[in-house]
Amino acid sequence: MKTGLLGAGGRGIQHAKALNASPRIDFIAVCDLDIARAQRIGAQFDIEPYDSAKEMLEREDIESVVIVTEAKDHANLSIQVLEAGKHVMCEKPMSNSVQAAQRMLEAARSSGLKAAIGYQRRFDPFFWTMKKIAHKLDPIQITLTRQRGLFLQRYLRSGSTYGIMDDACHHVDLANWLIGQTPKTVSGSFRTGVFTPTNAIDTANIQIEYGNNKDVRTANVITSMGGVGLQNFCQLVGKKGNAERQDSESIKITEIRYDEEAGEEKQRQLTKTRRVDCERINGGDPTQALEAAFADYVQGRPSEIANFHHGFETLLVLEAAFQSAKKCTKVSIAEVRPS
Fold first, then answer.
1. What structural domains does the chain harbor?
2. Is residue 266 scored above 70 in pLDDT?
3. Is the pTM of this model over 0.85?
4. pLDDT > 60? residue 255
5. What residues does 27 pair with on adjacent strands?
6. 245 near 275, Cβ under 8 Å?
7. What are phi and psi of 240, to 5 degrees?
């Protein structure tokens, strides 16, 4: 699949390396407003550099484009790519507003082309394996933590997609993916001004509810910019057992069943614990696995990549959490979905 890259910054370089390494992709062009950055990647991978997206998109041989720019530019560039007749994969978060993301979603639907979001952590060996386990355990509760350090200055702005939320979107996507249902309501609490002298969100606790009153499922995402050195974890509680990270290479599963023959008063809980090794795909490099999944998606093969609909649902959760924190009340996804 002949592919071009829009954006040659730090994350863009990571994508360039993964695109170049993928046997499924023919990496042929790169574009950046800073032509010197585009030229550096062009020289490194022997591809054509551009400083005009319009000029690069005029190439008929380019089938798909990967966008790695600031979130505020995602909507306009994605729509431009789709209008040029190219498939697109856009870095996370989908956009910096739900209104702009809806325009992206509508453009993808009307074009008939494939449009994906770069949530590469789905392809991390741990989460890739946890997804397979979740299908068997029927999850009803998930807890995810993401404790990290400070963001660069350009991410330290007010809003539902900036500060720690720029990273939390990964784990909101993971929660939606592991639960396997559409989010319904969200509760959020934030702190600002703790670790950075800005209005950016420094810490966030997000609770997401799925299902209905008879079958409520929940995910909890806990994250901050002050958690350097802490070990992050993921715990899944399901109807048929639970799972958590055992070490860097494996997951501990505790399968549970009830001895119904013992009667209600003597009912016993029977447990069995086992260890499952994490499955490494594409050598364990999540970004390389992401590029391969994008190629599968475009070419009609089964793929676990997040599409624009998934990216939009994640953005709605972030906005609902933001509104919940301001209003001090639970907010439904319907309330923040553009009409």
1. 2-121+286-303 (3.40.50.720), 124-280+314-335 (3.30.360.10)
2. no
3. yes
4. yes
5. 3
6. no
7. -115, 10
